[in-house]
Amino acid sequence: MIEFLFVIPVVVGIGLFLWLQAREKQRALAGQSRLAVWRLVIAAIAGLVMLFSGGCSLMLVPDAMRGNQYVDPIAILVVGGVPFAVGLFIWWLSLRRGNG
Q: Sign (positive/negative) of CA torsion 28, 50, 18, 14?
């Protein structure tokens, strides 16, 4: 069962990369500039960071809002919000296009 948990992020990351690559192929067919493959890989990794840190944090938010004594809203923001924000920033940087 534990081995299966390691496969899930890999499959999700590959799917995210293939989706981004298909998006770039559509841009190329429309005559627009494409991004490099390494930028798509970085965007896929950042997307995984956002998915898992943000998703796990969202599962704990309802308990924090109800005032559960074992779930602290500040801890949720630090443990899940900071990696989500960093992943979002890296994702934005990797998909950003220059003026060229």
A: positive
